[in-house]
Design a protein that fits this description.
mainly beta, Phosphatidylethanolamine-binding Protein, 2 helices
Amino acid sequence: MLAAASVLLGGCGLLGKPPPLTAAAPLTMSVTSPDFTGGVIPAAFTCDGAGENSPSIFWSGAPQGTKSIALVVDDAAAPISPRVYWIVYDINSTTTDLTIGKPPPHARVAQNSAGDAGYDPPCPVGSTHSYRFTVYALNTYFRSALPANSQLLSAWTMIAQHVIARGTLTGRALPGGLPGQDGHSAGPASDAAGKSALP
């Protein structure tokens, strides 16, 4: 099970760079955020702001057979290993958005890389970083099989085994929340099919 999970974790954007697409997890969902401007994550949603709220995220394109939705926020370019900032799962299959700072009713949150069950605001140091907001359509609803405050690896493994579709929105954040030389830093966002702009 762990061997299979390690392949899927990398392939689904949970860890590392996604390999060539497979029929098991096509990039067919669209993910957007009205809070991003030109691909930039506002400082209010990073460690340079209040650090309490996540941005609002909208998605569409969950395929037939979707039983629940999961959201993972990560920085795959983090040193040593990818850093995970937020994992939300058991989102109702009919839900199409997360409002600012609030998981939907009955959704559960797993521990992030900081060991907390909540949103850990991105905190780039030294240079601009890209952060992925990946939405997963799953073929199951975990309930007691994956309780709230689950450990990070447990949540990764369970989600990876049940992905049937996904979509990714990528945004950039700057150290200190400052604009770039041109007044902004445009980061790659998802295209019409919800495909990640990361390699």
